[in-house]
Design a protein that fits this description.
heterodimer, A: 404 residues, alpha+beta, Actin, Chain A, domain 4, 5-stranded mixed beta sheet, 5-stranded antiparallel beta sheet, 19 strands, 29% strand, B: alpha/beta, Rossmann fold, 60s Ribosomal Protein L30, Chain: A, 2 domains, 12 strands
């Protein structure tokens, strides 16, 4: 039963930080953000939980902070999902329209959708999302074919699936706090809906969420998410490259990255040196600014190239007129938008959250949890019967996990 | 120094037209260098002249080589440098004319030295400098000290190596430590050093045969010059050998483990690659193809690849491969191509003469100003043991994408040169 007002928690167990946002969902239509908790993450590498105890301790700390702000416990949790284990494939099905007058009925749509989603997964994999691409009725794109006339109805789903064990790890962190995971939402979809407008998604746009441990991407086309993916490379890799290349500890490398890292080669003067600490302390060292930029720019460029390779034929610059929109913590590195634009051959820019977002949540690092709430709100508001998203398999998985 | 064929006044003497041979000299500097020359003397490679340069009169007098030069007589009184590179440098500076006389008229000078000591480390860069002034292409084979010889020697050796990189066209270091790994418990000291010299000998011989044996696909001196057109960078040098039906696979495998290949796994990418294959009459095109594919894939990065193939009847069922790669460091200016010494001797305009430079000048060559400062080349020179670096991600799952581990820094995998 959906009560009049529900408190939902949007949780992102990220590699750098765990963020919990509490949103007050009123009559399934309005959303107020009433609580925020954030805690530096431990036990998470490249988006995957490696140390369960550490990860749940951080998550719980973030939860407590968020619930303190909200004043009451949350009812359900939307959990962001990322990690290298997530994969996707496209599967489509078509049906011949049943009715004598060739008018598409609900049964035709249902059959087509069911067939398109029926592809079996390998053992040990669970579906995270079935994302439907637009219907095609006799070859033309239609948003909703019901009551339209045509011979043949086609539909395809981009199915995102992940390792049961790894998804289970994430869910366990939440269930350990005695909470129910209402929905698993792909990080890329969450941040993607946050930084793009419906018009942009209609025209074609690519969103990259550059996190600390992973880069999640989603390509929108004709108003729907056409393809999603995860590259397990993020801000941590920039830091790691610097620490190996310049022989630094990780905190030192992190500091240099934040201060001087750039995704484009800006420094033309190879003799320009920068200090590690800059406080005249003993042991302070100098580094060539160009060297730092070379290391970070090489990584940034490669990261975009990997994303482009993963999208493969799905990404066509001409069909992505809005360009590449970047979000996530690592997107704050100077030159990222330019580097992305260069690799993809379309304009690149940083994503701006919607105007209603409060100032303290405007950081690109918050786009995923915000998107979770936003996504949740929308999915509740427009819960269409004709399988916008069927979570049947997911529910059964959750049942198994809860029971175990 | 342009060679203009239409210029009638150019004295096209008998000498130019017939004497197309290239003058190659192998010069050993210091104790280790001289010893290496002495050992290599046995090989008797045709047209290869030998010379030794030392500060130690006693060591010099015991050398069987004809062309012996004592340097720094004023500085050390013929007693050696006692392991001080500064003294070695002074000695060489004082006798630049003597050194110039040794390398005069040579097109290609192989410099052999053991770094870490005084004469080898201090004088070798000066010898290289003088040889360059004389217009020769200088390729140095140097041994790096054993680590049991102490940190000071290693440090000196590294400094000398940097100095050499700036004055030579190519420097190929051979880490003695690597030889130590290859030795068994019973290997004698003499045998170990002999092994080091043998490797250097093979290196010299491979270039020698590239130049003097006419091949199916010929490589000449000009090609070699082209490969070494810019200096200061690291040189990738590796030798491989294979025998029997599995010759190709064996050769590829042995190229990878060659001790002369003295760079880390991931920086083994070169801008220009020269590959010379020597095989018997049974050398087939598919074999060449297989070799070249494997080599360019491993070492080339969109590189300019030059290939040569030589047929040697005595090499039936055998293969020898020599890979030379050079990498530009930063935006170094390119030294102009030098004509052969023979041609040069008859053209006018002596741009660089031996006496032009006053004794005691700095080691930097004045004729070829090289703005690349020393620190550009001070990159992880000796991280030989470093096989793979994932740092923070060491204990996590591999992050494979199209055969590459994305956790390993991009610049290492792509061979991006970082000037620290």
């Amino acid at each position: 039963m959906i009560s009049k007002t529900r408190l939902i928690g949007a949780v992102e167990i990220g590699t750098s930080k765990v963020t919990v946002l509490v949103g007050e969902l009123m009559r399934g239509r309005t959303l107020n953000i009433v609580g925020l908790g954030s805690c530096p993450s431990r036990g998470v590498i490249k988006g995957g939980v490696v140390d369960y105890k550490e990860a749940s301790a951080c998550t719980h700390a973030a939860f407590r902070a968020a619930e303190d702000g909200a004043g009451s416990p949350v009812d359900a949790v939307y959990l962001a999902q990322t990690g290298a284990h997530l994969e996707g494939f496209y599967h489509e099905a078509s049906v011949n329209v049943n009715a004598a007058d060739n008018c598409v009925g609900a049964l035709d749509i249902d059959t087509a959708c069911r067939l398109a989603m029926a592809k079996e997964l390998p053992a040990g994999r669970a579906v995270v999302h079935h994302i439907r691409r637009p219907f095609r009725l006799d070859g033309r794109l239609v948003p909703d074919p019901e009551h339209l006339v045509g011979q043949r109805l086609e539909v395809g789903y981009w199915t995102v699936h992940g390792s049961e064990a790894k998804i289970g790890d994430h869910i366990h962190v939440i269930t350990g706090f005695n909470l129910r995971v209402d929905e698993l939402i792909l990080s890329s979809l969450a941040s993607g809906t946050m930084v793009t407008t419906p018009e942009e998604r209609q025209n074609g746009v690519l969103v990259l969420d550059l996190g600390c441990g992973t880069t999640d991407f989603v390509l929108y086309h004709d108003g729907v998410a056409y393809q999603t993916g995860v590259v397990p490379v993020g801000g941590d890799h920039f830091t790691n490259d610097l620490s190996l290349g310049l022989r630094l500890t990780r905190p030192q490398a992190e500091k240099l990255k934040l201060r001087y890292g750039s995704a484009m080669l800006r420094s033309r003067d190879k003799h320009e040196k920068v200090w590690l600490n800059g406080d005249y302390s003993v042991g302070d060292r100098q580094f060539s600014r160009q060297a730092i930029e070379q290391i970070t720019a090489a990584r940034a460029r490669e990261l975009f190239e990997v994303v482009r390779a993963k999208l493969d034929a799905a990404f066509v610059p001409e069909q992505t007129p809005v360009g590449v929109i970047l979000t996530g913590g690592a997107a704050k590195m100077p030159g990222m938008d330019e580097a992305a634009g260069k690799v993809f051959g379309v304009p690149g820019r940083l994503g701006e959250p919607a105007s209603w977002v409060a100032d303290e949540l405007r950081d690109p690092g918050f786009s995923t949890p915000l998107g979770l709430l936003y996504f949740g709100l929308n999915s509740q508001a427009e819960r269409r019967p004709a399988a916008r998203r069927s979570n049947g398999i997911l529910q059964s998985l959750k049942r198994i996990l809860v029971a175990s | 120094m342009q060679f203009d064929p239409n210029h009638n006044e150019l004295p096209l003497t008998h000498e130019i037209l017939t004497d197309r041979s290239i003058a190659i000299k192998m010069v050993g500097v210091g104790g280790a260098g001289s010893n290496a020359i002495d050992r290599l003397k046995m090989d008797n490679l045709a047209r290869l002249q030998l010379a030794v340069i030392n500060t130690d009169l006693q060591a010099l007098s015991s050398s069987p080589v004809q062309d012996k030069v004592l340097i720094g007589g004023q500085v050390t009184r013929g007693l050696g440098t006692g392991g001080d590179p500064e003294l070695g440098r002074e000695a060489a500076e004082a006798d630049r004319e003597k050194i110039a006389a040794v390398v005069k008229g040579c097109d290609l000078v192989f410099l052999l030295a053991g770094l870490g000591g005084g004469t080898g480390g201090g004088a070798a860069p000066i010898v290289a400098d003088v040889a360059t002034e004389q217009g020769a292409l200088v390729i140095a084979y140097v041994t790096m000290p054993f680590s049991f010889e102490g940190g000071r020697r290693l440090k000196q050796a590294e400094e000398s190596l940097l100095a050499l990189r700036r004055t030579c066209d190519a420097v190929i270091p051979l880490a003695n430590d690597v030889l130590l790994q290859e030795c068994s418990d019973t290997t004698g000291v003499l045998a170990a050093f002999a092994q080091a010299d043998a490797w250097i000998g093979r290196g010299v011989k491979s270039i020698w045969s590239m130049l003097f044996r006419t091949g199916l696909i010929n490589l000449d001196f000009a090609t070699l010059q082209q490969v070494f057109q810019s200096r200061g960078g690291k040189t990738l040098f590796s030798l491989g050998r294979g025998e029997g039906p599995q010759a190709v696979a064996q050769a590829i495998e042995s190229i990878k483990v060659c001790p002369l290949l003295h760079t880390t796994e991931f920086s083994r990418k070169a801008d220009r690659l020269l590959v010379n294959i020597i095989g018997g009459t049974d050398l087939t095109l598919p074999m060449v193809n297989e070799l070249m594919t494997a080599i360019t894939e491993q070492y080339g990065r969109d590189s300019h690849v030059i290939m040569g193939a030589v047929i040697d009847e005595g090499m039936q069922q055998q293969l020898e491969v020599c890979v030379i790669g050079t990498t530009d460091v930063g935006n170094r200016n390119q030294t102009p191509r030098r004509p052969l010494a023979a041609a040069r001797s008859v053209t006018l305009a002596p741009a660089r003469t031996a006496g032009e430079k006053p004794a005691g000048a700095t080691a930097a060559p004045s004729a070829t100003p090289d703005p690349a400062p020393a620190d550009r080349t001070e990159q992880n020179e000796f991280s030989f043991a470093e096989v793979e670096s994932r740092g923070y991600f060491d204990k996590t799952d591999r992050n494979l994408f199209e055969g590459q581990d994305l956790d390993v820094p991009t610049y290492l995998r792509k061979g991006v040169k970082i000037g620290v």
